[in-house]
Structures are given as C-alpha cells and as structure tokens.
Amino acid sequence: MKREDSHSSKNFGEVLEQRFERRALLGGLMKSIPATALLATAAAPAAAAEAAPEAAAAASPAPQAKRETRLQFQAIKASTQDAIQASPGYKTSVLLKWGDPLFNDSPAFDPMAQTPAAQAKQFGYNNDWMGYFPLPAHDVTNPRHGLLAVNHEYTNPELMFRTYGGFANQTAEQTEIELQAHGLTVVEVMRNSKGDWSYVVGSRYNRRITATTPAELTGPAAGSDWLKTSADPTGRRVLGSLNNCSGGQTPWGTILSGEENFHQYFSNAGRVTNAQAKAINTLYGMPEANGEYPWARHVDRFDMAKEPNEANRFGWIVEFDPYQPQSVVRKRTALGRMRHEGCTIQVAQSGQIVAYTGDDERFQFAYKYVSKGKYNAFDRLANDTLLDEGTLYAAKFNADGTGEWLPLVFGQGPLTAANGFANQADVLVNARGAAARLGATPMDRPEDIETNPVNGKVFIALTNNTRRTDRDKDAANPRANNRWGHIIELTEDNGDHTATKFFWEVFILCGDPAQASHGTFFAGYDPKQVSALACPDNITFDSKGNLWIATDGQPGTLGVNDGIYAVPTDGVERGFVRQLMSGVKGAETASLVFNSDDTALFVSIQHPGEGGRWTLNEADLVSKWPDGGGPNKPGVVVVTKAEGNPVVGS
Ligand code: FEO
Ligand code: CA
Ligand code: CA
C-alpha cells in the first residue's frame, strides 16, 4: 500500500498553513519558503509511489487498516518516588537486571564475589538501547517471541563494588570486571499465555559482547595508519566495543550500536606527540591526563602514551547479526567517528540505505549516511557491505526552515590536504573536524534520531545545551541556556531520504509550560494540557506514528525522576505530550522499544541510585531499586496492558 496522507481530517493546505503560523510565532522562520514548495514536498511521496510502486512499498511502513493516532492513556503526575510509576491499567515488571545469568553455566550473581569470568556470562551493567528481533527469523512480525538486544553503556564502580576505593585504588580485577560489564547482550525473550514476559537462560541465541570481544574494522578507514596499534599492525582488528549508547535495527535483521563517550576510558592524550593527532584528540575531548576511568593503570591500550591510536578504534557504529551467535562484530567506519548516539535506517525509494545518526556533544552535528548499493530484501547476506560504501553527510539548518546535507567526501570543498584531510580515512576518523569545515550547524547535543514509520519524517532529539548563549543561538537551536532540550522534525526534499536538501521545524521546545521563563512550545498544542518534560534523549515510534520519548536529566532540571512520554505527531493532538511512566531515584530512563505489535514496551532503567554509593551504610544509597537494598541493579522493565492490549491504546 502506498503512503497515505496522515492528516486524514484536514487538507494539507490547512495543516501547512497552521504550521506556518506556528513557525511564524517561533520567530518568522518560514519567511522565505513558498507554501507551494512545501505542498510539493508533502505530496511527493505519493507521486513517487505511483511511479515506482515496488520501491515505494519497500520504503513504506506496514499498511495501517485504520489510521487512528490517538493515544489512550491517562497521564501520570511526575514522580520523585523510588518506585516505577505507570498510568492506571498498565503493568510493569522487571525482565532482566544486572548480573542475571544468561547461559547454562552462568554462575548465580554474587555481588560480593564478582569476577570478570562470571560477568562475561551475566547480563551487563547500565543497559541502554534495546532492539526487538522476532523469532523465528522468518516470522518478522511475531510479537510474543523474539530476541532482545540490549546495550550496556557504561559502569558505575561506586555502585557496583561495595566500599569501592575510588579511582586511585581500583584493582586490576575490578577493571576487568568493568570491561566485561560493558558491551551488549542478546537474549531470547517470550510472552506466556497470561501476557507475562520472561527470558530464556541457555538459549542458543544468547550472547554477550564485551570490551574484549574481537571485532573487525571495515570500510574506508579500515587499515589506515590512524587505526594501527602495536597489537594490531593491520588496523583492522580491535578488541571490544565501548559506551554502546543507542542503536538501531537494519531491515536485514542486524543490530547497529553507537559507541558514544569512548573518550572517558582513555588517559594521557597530553603525551601524544603527533601534532595532527593532538588536534584531533582535543576535538574529541580525549583526556590530557587521567580519564574518567582508571583503566590505563591496568590495561596498556587505554594509555595513550603507550598506544596513541587505540582510541581511534572506538567511536564507530557497530553492526552484527543477533540471529547468529558466532557472527562477526564489525565497526563500520564509513559512518564516521564521533560520539555516536543511535543509528536509524530507512530504505529510500531508490532502494539505497540511509542511516541517521547524531554526535551527542554540545555544538556537534547531526549526520546521515547514504549507501551506494541497494537493499536486497530477498538475500540477507547481499546487504552485508551496504554500510561500507556510501556518502556521509552532516546537516546544515538554515534560518528559513530549509536545510542542506553537506557531503563529507575527501577532495570536495574544503576537505583537502591543505586543511589536514589527505584521504577519506582522515575525513572519517576526524568527522567532527570535517563537518565543522563544511559549515554544518552545531546543535544542542544531537541524541537519538528516528524516522516516523507512517510518513518517513525524521525526528531529532536534542537533549540540552547550557553553554548555548544569546550570541550563538540560531533558528534550529533557539534558546540560550537550553537546559530542557528540544525536538526537531525534518522532512526530506520530495520525501526522498537520499535528498541533499530538507525542510525542518521545531516540534517541541521542552520544559515546564507552567514556567514562562522556560519558553516551551508543544507544536502549537495547548500547553495547559501537556505533561512537562525535559531532556529528550532516546526516542522511538509506535506503529501508528506516535513519538515516544525517554528522558535523561529531569532530576536536575524539573526536580522529578526521568520518565517515558508519548506524543502524537499528526492530527489534532499533534504536540499533546503525556507521561506514561516514571523511573526511580537516580536513574535515567535510557531507552525504549516496542515489540512488533505494540503490546509490550521495553524500558531501560539505567544507573538507578546514581549520586549515591554502595557501602556498609544503607543511607549512602540514593535508591533501593530494584531489590530493596544495595547494590542497585540497572534493569529492563516491560510495560504491558491488561489482556495483551496494545500499550498505545486499543
Ligand atoms: Fe548515552 Fe547520549 O546518551
Ligand atoms: Ca542516551
Ligand atoms: Ca531510539
């Protein structure tokens, strides 16, 4: 079925006119875009579908028999309680938590007797992004049985080890345990006839990727001098993946995961001597002396004085096949090196693969990658190199509501030897420097980017940026001291995800609408009716095109726990934000994903109790979740409704 106009009860002209008015309110952003141009843009996907129905079908979402976007749950009040809260009629339960055994020979978790070998066979720490992959692999819609892929972003040693001695006293064994607590988990999950979810210990699919799992570097930067170390003179083999934050799923059934704050594991960038390397290290925030973690004291590759290039082997998008537990983990250098957030794939009308990704740092950029090759729906393996050859672009947001995707291609524009780019490997290892040279727009921490499955529009969550000032604010980052973050909606030119031009508008300026000083905006919806929210972080869509938002930073901004919110993106309730659930004290609601029929929402509760310590004194704990005392255990919560009804409303 071709794409439908989602504005079912209004004609497009009316809707666009309303959006013009909203944008005019936001500062006259639309002055120079003729309405006819936007109308042509909006109408294009349908026209393209008629011209090439097969390609358009591949690029379109599953057909919707009934276009009902209205969410049907009662918003909860923001919470400061140390317990999960959810809207009436919803059930929450802990599916997985740190230390849970995954394999038949996994030792039972004993937090007082942790070992690296045990952690390697247990659910890791600080779960973040999740993906649901139905089982069996050919039943692409099975909502009851599947694989859950879970990222383990980072570790909190002060919460993991009782009476932890601090940076200077971390033992070699504690370092090794932390290495094994990072990475990813793949685990088989299923729902029983009562609607309760559980995971399968010993499933043949279960897998741990850790910070020591062998991985391959592929694509244009693989094998370059930047990636060579004493342990790997080929520049193609690396141990492990780090700081896996958000991620994505490919249409061919593989996992994508973004390596985000990799810099913090390294020390001694100040002792790197190569001038170009020093400049790049500074741009990437590599620690001059001690990093956040003391790992360099025990593992040489994290000491940049000894291995100046090891850090260049992190900060990539990682891909592997969850259906094959022995599949090789690959780092796809064609997508650039940065503090990657997620990676969301869209099949373009041409059949090319488009991957959206953000660099989560103040004043860094939003990116997309367009593959050279085309998606093959009939041969999984034929898609194996789609993320190795293509063009990476960074986004430039113009004040008039238009935008451009600027190609990061060696030899084009300023990306030449005169500016420090001697080949494409230089461009990709230093993607930040290349995008800045091109004039991409520095954003307020581009976090997750997701595409609406109903209409293909692209949503960018910008968590916050308290360093933005009146002097450097712009149309796409319109608030100085942006403590609360915002969300941008981007429409590719002609609805074509390979386009080099786009249109954009601010969808939500977050904050508390009751506080005039926050300057909030909810797509024009009545601010008296919405839930306050701040710091939009990870986002996802349900199959009806409603946007779901997980927050990271509400305790410090709104004085309440982080939580899960939903908002229609179309129709009369566009902008009507409501809170479905709340996390616990000290925790971030780091990520969220639906199963394939929206009857289960998996939510990552990350770093519960952060700010506290696990000691002999229970009063040092900020949270007692989930077990009623220390240690806190990050975990995955599954949210369901009675009788297996969809979480979005029946
Ligand atoms: Fe790990 Fe950008 O959050
Ligand atoms: Ca995040
Ligand atoms: Ca997401």
Report on this model:
- This protein has 650 residues and is of the alpha+beta class.
- It has one domain (3-233, 243-260, 315-326, 337-644).
- Helix content is 13%, strand content 27%.
- The chain contains 10 helices and 32 strands.
- Strands 14, 15, 17, 18, 19, 21, 22, 23, 24 and 25 form a 10-stranded antiparallel sheet that branches. A 6-stranded mixed sheet has the order 9-8-13-12-11-10, with no helix packed on it. A 5-stranded antiparallel sheet has the order 1-29-28-27-26, with no helix packed on it.
- A hairpin with a 4-residue loop joins strand 14 and strand 15.
- Helix 2 crosses helix 3.
- The relative contact order is 0.14.
Task: Give me a quick take on this structure.
The chain contains ten helices and 32 strands.
Secondary-structure map with pairings?
Elements: H1 12-25, H2 35-51, H3 53-59, E1 85-86, E2 90-97, H4 116-119, E3 127-134, E4 145-152, H5 157-160, H6 172-181, E5 183-191, E6 197-199, E7 207-209, E8 214-218, E9 237-239, E10 244-249, E11 255-259, H7 275-283, E12 317-320, E13 329-332, E14 344-347, E15 352-358, E16 362-364, E17 366-374, E18 390-397, E19 402-407, H8 424-429, H9 431-438, E20 443-444, E21 446-451, E22 458-462, E23 486-492, E24 501-509, E25 521-522, E26 536-541, E27 547-551, H10 554-557, E28 563-567, E29 578-582, E30 588-594, E31 600-606, E32 635-641
Helix pairs in contact: 1-2, 2-3
Bound molecules: MU-OXO-diiron and calcium ion (2 copies).
